Amino acid sequence: MKLHFNQAAIIGVGLIGGSLGMILRRKGLASSVVGVGRRVENLKTAVTVGAIDRYVVDSREAVRDADLVILATPVDTYERHLKEWASCLRPGAIVTDVGSVKGELVARSERQMPAGVHFVGAHPIAGKEKTGAAAGSEDLFAGRRCILTPTKETDPQALEQVQFLWQEAGAVVLTMDPHLHDKILGAVSHLPHVAAFALMNALVDIRTEVPALDLAGHSGGGLRDTTRIAASSPEMWRDIFLWNRENVVACIRAFERSLGELRQLIQTGDAAGIEKLLEKAKEEREKFPVRS
């Protein structure tokens, strides 16, 4: 199919939104890409790096003539944004998002759509710890998965267009029920971030108890690799944890059980038990696909 939008509006021109803007512009998928955001300095940077053609401060102005709107703000802001400008959307427009939580958010977003406007939930599983338009990249999504979360309300043609957009971005596209998405991502994405943030805070507590310990100076690759994602946006992850709280809490409980089992084995000096547990983890880790 041939994909072309007259005007694409990106609400939140950060890493993900900015990268999509670069792709839309440089692949000729949109005649004009307009950005909206909280920080004018970041929007100016977005123009400089080629993520958008221009920016406006009024989101209603940005979406009024748009046939594609990409919602790339923290998930907790979706309802506020949609209430602000959904009534300005033109019939036939497609609204999609890039949020790491779907479930209830997709349902609420669909309810905000005026007649003739179509919402398609999307979650590209790609990113960096750096934020802002300057961190954007045309190849950010290359070879990465993008999960679309259609419902019975989803317009088939709008779904096809969003799917093609992500294929043009280089992503491997698959579809999934929004609530199943949240269960899976709660385990494979949200829990690792919980663990990374918690580990860094545990190290802060250890350093506080023994101030002379130079933890950062003596850290090796293991600590850096394990805690890399703790450098991610606290605002974004606060919202993800809260919007997917039921699944995240269930995953934390499973993690606590696993930590408790390992702690008990170490405490009792059970060498065979420790090795068995570590071997089980090693075998599971080795099943992961190799990525470049």
CA radius of gyration: 21 Å
Please state the overall shape, judged from the principal axes of the Cα atoms: elongated
Oligomer state of the chains in this structure: single chain
Q: CATH homologous superfamily name of the largest domain?
A: NAD(P)-binding Rossmann-like Domain
Question: Would you give an account of this structure?
Answer:
With 292 residues, this protein is of the alpha/beta class. It has two domains: 5-176, NAD(P)-binding Rossmann-like Domain (Rossmann fold); 180-285, 6-phosphogluconate dehydrogenase C-terminal like domain (6-phosphogluconate dehydrogenase C-terminal fold). It contains eleven helices and nine strands. It has helices spanning 15-26, 40-48, 59-64, 78-85, 103-112, 156-168, 178-209, 221-227, 234-243, 245-267, 271-285; strands spanning 5-11, 30-36, 54-55, 68-71, 94-97, 118-120, 122-124, 145-148, 172-175. The strands form two sheets. Strands 3-2-1-4-5-6 form a six-stranded parallel β-sheet, sandwiched between helices. The model has no long low-confidence stretch (mean pLDDT 93).
